[in-house]
Give the backbone structure.
Amino acid sequence: MPRHYQIGDFSRITRLSVKTLRFYHEKGLLKPKKTDASSGYRYYAEDQIEVVRRINLLKELGLSLEEIKNTLADCTDDRDLLALLKGKLGELSDKITRLKDVKTRVAELVEREEMVQQVDSTMEIIVKEIPDQLIAGLRFKGRYAESGERFKRLFRSLGGLAASKPFNLYYDEGFMEEGADIESCLPLRKEKRVDDISIRKLSGGQAYTVIHRGAYDKLGNSYKKLADEMAKTGLKLSSPIREIYLKGPGLVFDNPDKYITEIQMFTE
């Protein structure tokens, strides 16, 4: 005959307080096997010690009391519980992968925003090595303003894989009022093929760079500074030029004076 314990003894055996046992009873999670009608004493069966073990295990997994109640109703033996735990393990693995991806993207965002905040207004020229990077590109001939539509399409198709800020590649020798040869690009964290979008590795190299603060129609001042510097060194420009849009038009407020663009001129 199964042994039964009064609530005090069962509390000491399971290491659950009497208050907790009564709360579990009220929630329908762990009901006493029998209650003495005359004294009102509650008695728990020996096999309910295993039920407490399962409750504690499921609480460690972060399940709510309602979820634990439903789970216990569905798990009739340890095999059912093991299957549940295996499923939970798979869910946790997927969640960890997603969180690692989010962590990487947040770290990239923090790095980019810190870089933007550290930029001063002196338009200092910096020579640096630009690494190769995986990009998605849409090349076209048209007006400079038309690149906005290309960026929208790139973000619609691949925005979830964006590794950093978008940029344009300019293949023409000089400024073009019409028919400019432009490629709008989005750096990617990993490859994903999309029809009509060029996915490839863009070569890096040594670049003369400057940060421009202000409207796009004032970019000529920064281009002059770069051209003067490269003329002093005697180095030749290698096409295409890159314009990286660190901060552009806002979703609600648009202040061109707050735009931040990095221009990169590569050397042969």
Remarks:
- The CA atoms of residues 90 and 96 lie 10 Å apart.
- The two ends are 91 Å apart (CA to CA).
- DSSP finds seven helices and eleven strands in the chain.
- The longest strand covers residues 237-247.
